[in-house]
């Protein structure tokens, strides 16, 4: 089985992204490209990264009215990303339309709650101060809307898996046991996330900012 680690290449620098991807490509299962990369390099940059030969996870987190999201997803069809993200909070119709617009082979996963948020952040935007409850509510919505899975923290993935045994679960914000949390508030180790039911892990800085990115990816893969 190929590695369940997707390396997050959160940089606007195409040459740097390509260099990092080539260095770690034997020890990761795919490449995650987010807004930072896409705004700088667009579809051309995604094509260039795809030439490295790893699946592409396009993490653009669409959140808009259903028609706009559907048109945006349609515009990305030629790129045939392996995974595409939308915000679960966009609602059922938006989720349904995003899935309908995506290429057949693309997994559409719904972002439940950003791993940079905690209960105080939920209160500040008018929600109940319970990350677990918020994630479960949105997981239920995503499941019923027919998308492929969700993005959630390692703290919620076991409960989400119990709710949705066939779901595809993307866990970001994982950090090795000796790793620095950075701006993430709800973190678990890669091994704990996989044991809890994660389908894939998104790992950025612990690999990309390591002295030897290839060795860092290899070390995380070894724990799995």
Question: Portion of residues in helices?
Answer: 40-55%
Computed over alpha carbons, the radius of gyration is 17 Å
Unreliable residue runs: none
Mean pLDDT: 93
* Mass-distribution shape: globular
Largest sheet: 8 strands, parallel, barrel
Question: What is the string of SSEs from the N terminus onward?
Answer: EHEHEHEHEHHEHEHEHH
Strand element count: 8
Structural class, from secondary structure content? Answer: alpha/beta
Task: Give the N-to-C terminal Cα separation.
Answer: 12 Å
Order of strands, widest sheet: 1-2-3-4-5-6-7-8
Strand content: 15-25%
Our count of helices gives: 10
Describe the structure.
- This protein is 43% helix and 17% strand.
- With 224 residues, it is α/β, with parallel strands linked by helices.
- α1 (14-24) crosses α2.
- It has helices at residues 14-24, 35-50, 66-75, 92-101, 119-124, 131-145, 157-163, 190-196, 205-208, 213-223, and strands spanning 5-8, 30-34, 56-62, 83-87, 107-111, 149-151, 168-171, 200-203.
- It is globular and about 40 Å long.
